[in-house]
Amino acid sequence: MSLSIPPTMKALVIKAPFKIAVEERPTPRIVDANDAIVRVHQSGLCGSDLHWYRGHQPSSYNFILGHEVIGEVAEVGSAVKKFKPGDLVLAAFSTSCGECFYCSQQHSARCVHSQNFGTPMLDGAQAEYFRLPQADTTLFHAPVDIPKDKLVLLTDILPTGYQVAYNAKTLLSSDVPETAANAIQQQSGVCVVIGCGPVGLCAISAACTLFETVFATDIAPHRLESASRHGAIALPLEQLKQKLMEVTEGRGADACLEVVGHSSALQTALDLVRPYGAISSCGVHTQVAPLAGSQLYGKKMMFGRCSVNKYMEPALALLRENQALFSSFVEHKIPLSQAEENKVAKTVFDFE
Amino acid sequence: MSLSIPPTMKALVIKAPFKIAVEERPTPRIVDANDAIVRVHQSGLCGSDLHWYRGHQPSSYNFILGHEVIGEVAEVGSAVKKFKPGDLVLAAFSTSCGECFYCSQQHSARCVHSQNFGTPMLDGAQAEYFRLPQADTTLFHAPVDIPKDKLVLLTDILPTGYQVAYNAKTLLSSDVPETAANAIQQQSGVCVVIGCGPVGLCAISAACTLFETVFATDIAPHRLESASRHGAIALPLEQLKQKLMEVTEGRGADACLEVVGHSSALQTALDLVRPYGAISSCGVHTQVAPLAGSQLYGKKMMFGRCSVNKYMEPALALLRENQALFSSFVEHKIPLSQAEENKVAKTVFDFE
């Protein structure tokens, strides 16, 4: 069963660094019984898309970008059970099988059969249609009470922001497992968010539900304003240090969230966190981090990649309660035809 | 109330790097209402004592070393409730108040009122008597069914070895707090212990109670033999890597315990652990650890210092079940008078 799918479609193709083109391409079709073909309603432009665009990573080109997407199921393979044509759906930014070693531990982002779509491995969603493998375990039914351009945030950055805060909270009580489940329910402790870009703001909103006091810092003054709107006590670093020491009797932060992806930010986290405190980092660190051994002593750290499936539910709750706050996350909503002139972040391509 | 305490005592005094002397010193007396004076039965020589001896850390000298001790309470201050003269006791290697921010979270090793005895801050236990502050929360009643030279292991290295394994196990399930308490009960997962000195062997014995499979590696062949006796599959690093990949379907270890205290061992842990795996380190890292950002991504790490109070009970259980195994930990039992000729590790000074 399928909606009527045209043989070709408009797609935004990255041809080379700094070179994109809207092209007419064959519409993808079901290849595997677990596939779905999704007609795209809105498709976000992620900061990581810009890494390809700017040529920051060696790559082959001539593929379709895009992994932040809301759309409508157009066709499903014979093994897909949970979705049918016409369903409004969100997709996690990487596919997962639901059955492998990592999926069985809720670490869907490391599924051994995972495919990142919107990469040279698999065409993405900045097109009228895209093919999604492992549909049953990668798609989510989209709620209808929230605007689509906000729902797109649930496919990547909002769960990423949620997990970085959640992991810090769980790390804090990890060595007392019998009390860990209770600890996570209590809004307690002092948290510092380092980096107030879009993911940082998501992390702040999440941290406000988990910690009693949330500080935030960034080098850009306008980002501090945004951080403040999201509920943080937002200060330049030196002022933050002083205030933090005041409220913690000189101990330092119970938790630091590193949302920058640079080793200097990690070093700041080590400077601010107290002994037996937790550092949670979701930035992608490509450099060597020269961390002082004496500062590591007595600390807990967690790095990494968000398993969207695990955090979808709390991220949705966070979005539902803070819709107005997240309006600023999409500044440009444009048709694909304008893509070549508008290759900037905070953009959603609108196919409706 | 007090036992008869002589006005002077024999004590081993560190005078300068590589220079120790047995001297007649005034016997310490109660200074604070929470103090106890302990008559020493046996007092261990810890690897960290050798840091002072070898002049590895800048320090004033002319103090009494020793923090691994079993003895008999000789006198208590008026506020001490749990101990009385004549009680056989063990002391945690650092004192703790039981009430501060860290103590209330079971992190007694970071007690804000903590005093490390056997340092220039406070004379230690390589003497006939020593003074212990915060006696009620630092002393433990010693069990009588285990020889004293083994009980000495409970004051430092056995809890340290236990906690490095326990922390790895709890980190592994930290982001699923509702199942963490159950996970710790199950002997599951694959653990690699890096470094098979005395603390490494304690870590291996502990890991065998927490993990299904325990590997161990060290550059010294005779240490691999000991590791094997403690229950590990002990192999040189290259062989271990191959075997580890076989048993984990190429994933790598669920947990790595770093018990060396050198950044190269930390790097080995990063090389061996799987995504979303846990690294637990109890080595004291004094250098800068140049860790590759790409390897940190998706990992959890915990560093640090053992809070003896928290791990005393499971460490005692471990010792009780493995007494024969831990016999090798004390190779030399000598009177204090021979100390000047026998300044080597695995030594216990016998005062009885």
UniProtKB/TrEMBL annotation, chains A, B:
Keywords: Metal-binding, Oxidoreductase, Zinc
Cofactor: Zn(2+)
This protein's record includes keyword Oxidoreductase: yes
GO molecular function, one term: oxidoreductase activity
Alcohol dehydrogenase-like N-terminal domain ranges (all copies): 33-136
Alcohol dehydrogenase-like C-terminal domain ranges (all copies): 198-300
Family note: Belongs to the zinc-containing alcohol dehydrogenase family.
Protein name stated in the entry: Enoyl reductase (ER) domain-containing protein
